[in-house]
Specification:
Layout: H1 2-50, H2 56-135
């Protein structure tokens, strides 16, 4: 019984760790998405402001650099999405493992309860039979 309890606690801990990893990765992804949106908005404003002006040659370099940054950000977001998906799959597997041990624990407890009931019934039957024999 103790070993099953230990396995259940261990699996719950692993489950919590995976959940924390997913949460952290999702928060990081959200920050990257916000950053990408801000950069896209900045680019739009810069293009509106400097397109066709005397600073357009600098704008070209700026657009090139921001394009590289956007590309890196997009690849980081994709990497995080893949990581999150992998961790969710691991979460599902870990949850299945936890349920397996919990079901084993329930079955073991049910079996112990049945054995205890059988022992109690046998004891009460013997007690009743002895009482009958000694009273007659």
């Amino acid at each position: 019984m103790k070993s099953l309890n230990t396995l259940i606690k261990f699996n719950k801990t692993k489950l919590d760790q995976i959940l924390m990893e997913i949460k952290k990765a999702e928060e990081e992804k959200a920050l990257l998405v916000i950053s990408a949106e801000k950069l896209a908005e900045e680019v739009r404003k810069e293009v509106e402001t400097y397109h066709g002006s005397e600073y357009s040659f600098i704008l070209e370099q700026y657009l090139e650099n921001t394009s590289k940054i956007q590309s890196r950000t997009k690849s980081q977001i994709e990497r995080l999405e893949l990581h999150i998906e992998n961790r969710r799959q691991a979460l599902s597997e870990q949850y299945a493992e936890l349920k397996k041990y919990e079901i084993a624990m329930q079955n073991k407890q049910r079996k112990e309860n049945l054995n205890a009931q059988k022992i109690e019934t046998k004891f009460l039957d013997e007690f009743g039979a002895n009482k009958y024999f000694y009273n007659n």
